[in-house]
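Minimal example, chain plus flavin-adenine dinucleotide.
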Amino acid sequence: MPAPLRSVAVVGGGLAGLAAAGALQQAGVGVTVFDKGRSAGGRVTTRRREALQFDHGAQFFTVRTPAFAAALRPLQDQGVVQRWHGPFRTLERGVVSGDPRPGAERWVGAPGMSALPRAFAAGLTVVVGSRIDGLRRAAAPGGWLLAGIDVATGAALAHGPFDAVVVAIPTAQAHALLRTSGLAGPVADAAAARADALQPCLAALVAFAAPLADGDGAWFVTDDELAWAAHDGGKPGRSGGPVYVLHGAGAWSAQQFAQDLDGNAQALVAAFARCLGRSLPQVAHLEGHRWRYALAAEGELARACVVDADQRLALCGDGLVGGRVEGAWGSGLAAAEGLLAMR
Ligand SMILES: Cc1cc2nc3c(=O)[nH]c(=O)nc-3n(C[C@H](O)[C@H](O)[C@H](O)COP(=O)(O)OP(=O)(O)OC[C@H]3O[C@@H](n4cnc5c(N)ncnc54)[C@H](O)[C@@H]3O)c2cc1C
């Protein structure tokens, strides 16, 4: 008869970690989520600058699975998630054409993408500003001990014991954490195998001094430098102002990653103008952001999650399932279900 599952530590409070934590708590398990960031949400985030705001990570999400649809229904009713109608276009070598996935539904958090993880985190115990650097399994039952630091002060922190651990961080970081912790087994193997799954992305967060003609919605761009441009200010629940988010192409982002942040942001604005084939209004605000672990190639699916029954250790996150919000959430749910099935 397996030992009872009373307490679980979730490392990482992105969509995967929040989904795992929510399902475990709903099943009556005590859960603590640890995240090194200032709030939960990970790459589903909104940056605020006085009156401006930018969704500089995930731009929208799909709702294809019944489980995700059911989880979102109350949030739709509250207006926390809303359908974004674009319009969505492709922009290839200066030529604008239709939506690459006609009829596809795209959803956003409102008033910003961060509203989505905030809603999923409500009612959970989430310890933010807490980086986990080591996992140790003590001999005693329920013996997972976590070591880390308080990001703000640098003070060493110790947590536990917990009956099980869910690792819900990008696969490269999971690989480093498990290796540093000296852990072996299927979870460590999967993290190692998928360590390179997520590619970097450079972003530019730009506000123009005047609206762009025909500047609504978003463009899926085929270009050496630019991959995506969105009228962030035009998403549902936003101000409507001329605020845009630009994302660099994968190879360009990787090549330019270590270069000057401002220079990269300026290059993305110049690429946007070049791709549209026209000059843009004056820039009123511009900043860059580096996403070291951003996106996996779409369709590159592995396993939804990996659960080690013997160690009571699970790995989830988008690096296992193709790098999308819905995939990350489903991966976290699968990890929780895997642990619960062992009770
Ligand atoms: C630029 C960009 C554009 C994107 N566009 C889209 C899109 O349009 N549609 C879409 O569906 N998806 C998009 N994505 C992908 C989507 O954001 C991710 O698939 C999803 O958010 C991943 O969730 P996750 O929980 O697996 O990981 P994350 O969101 O990365 O969450 C991991 C969390 O773990 C924390 N963490 C890491 N290490 C530690 C540690 N040692 N201790 C404690 N905490 C730690 C981090 O702070 C983070 O909060 C985009 C991503 C980026 C970066």
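The chain has two domains: 7-45+119-196+299-340, 60-64+84-109+199-295. The mean pLDDT is 95.
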